[in-house]
Amino acid sequence: MYEHFLSSLAKKQWERIGLKRRSGVVTGLFSLYSGDSAGIGELPDLDLLADWCARAGMSIMQLLPMNDVGFDFRPYDAQSTFALDPMYLALDRLAGVDTAPFRKDLNALRKRFPAGKKRVDYRIKGAKLELLWKIFKNAAGQPPEFDRYLEDNKFWIEDYAVFKVIKDCCAQKDWEAWEPKLKARDEDAIRFFVRDNTENILFHQWMQWQLYEQFRAAKAYAAKKGVLIMGDLPFLVSRDSADVWSHQGYFKLNLSSGAPPDMYFSLGQRWGMPVYNWGNIAHHKYDYLTEKLRYAQNFYDLYRIDHVVGIFRVWTIALSEPLENAGLHGVFDPKDEKLWEEHGRTLLSIMVKNTAMLPCAEDLGVVPACSNKVLEELGIPGIEVQRWSRDWGKTYDFRKPEDYRKGAVATVATHDSTSLVMWWKFDAGTADAHLFKRKCEEKRVGFEHVRGRLFDLKKSHHGRLRWKEEITDVHTLLGILNLPEDQARDLVNLYKESYGEKERFWKYLGMEGRPGEEASPEFVRRALEKVCATASIFTTQLLQDWFSLDDFPECGDWDFRINVPGTLSDKNWSVVMPLPLEKMLKLPVNKAIKSINKKAGRA
Length: 603
Description:
By secondary structure, this protein is an alpha/beta fold. The protein has 25 helices and 16 strands.
């Protein structure tokens, strides 16, 4: 069924992991905790997650980005695409140091930052760094393994550590606000700074080595359990990052990255991270790209290529563009569509050739036609999201499981979307309010005048408008809009895409009667069975969606979602699962999850 992967460029990667139908879980380590955790999930906690995966018939644990985010805590806007975040260190398992003298400090840290609250208290990072500094100062010399680590990672480790120490000295100011010579990386200025801050720089390098040791141990344990770890490598990096500061010529600093308008984001998105100057990177034999992959394969068996369509072409917005316009006024880079296919093929081929990890591409959003062609050619799986896998522009029905791409990771939701239960409760059968309003304004239709006639406002929440049942056809819609169909094409498309969505999905699952307002465990089970039964070689689900098979009311709470794209909120990237990993291992629902995976030939 999947033999064609062995004739692709990724042949060696497929041979290494096997042509096997697999199921898995998606989560952030920040969302997990155990009885040993201090304030946040820690790398040794991955052992318990691997145990849970094995018990539930899964062989992939997919982690959200683990990169050092500084003190902003946005994993796709990291201060380094190499360095891991020290907040994930287990301080009582540090290599080459005696932590016994700090036992009281560790207990006090756990008491001050108890794990298992509804939200991560990210002040834990600063507290951990203070204690790590005390432990580091007390360490008797550095073992030879640490010296080898520094030698093996010369490409990035010193630049990263120097960047971190300068930020500490500059009250965390962005590097573009530093003293001019440090900002411009004047050789003499950097040399004098390193001379005067040797110990602090060594401290940041030492923490990265400790993370390396603990993560490698977690990967080895998962392998013993037959579980592969899938990493998530952000496509872009923060403008205020060690990467951009140390390789300023590798980025177009006059531009911001983003995404064009779509049905979910009417103004598009403006992310703020700079776009790559691929010409300059190519001139240096793609060292930045290949070194990043070389380091990541210490920890991962597979990796998610974040926003893979950006590798073909990325949406760019001039920094002079007003922030309130988001991504509305942008252009693609490269501008010439004829260059996209070869541009993407070149970069993806380099990625495949320079790592043992199997890439899996996140190909969502506005996808260029060449994307699927190149991914299939190279043997790179894409992603199929159940709610968006439909016969668009024709029947709008949900695609049958056997019609999913074989080269794909099938899922019911992503970390950027609502979970399955939330989608059903808040999103299914709705139109985006901002987009609908903007389209009305373009057509000179009074939005406030038609809103109450078209939509059930009592059932409309969180910027989503639920259609009234009586808007049964396009003729009725056009009558209320008072527009001919040729002038209302955009609004008609929004209607066709969303009206009756609940009824279609209910029928797709084989449920009886009228669609319920809430997603029952039976509804969740059928949706998960459908997505696991697809032709796609892999299927991974958010931990929240697996938990929805049981009675976990948190899973239907709007605030329980991982991230709302395009927003800045302390609720993003901070949700914590409602029980510790030790209790997860004993859940009765584990048998139901394993049964679904076994039935689909994935256990």
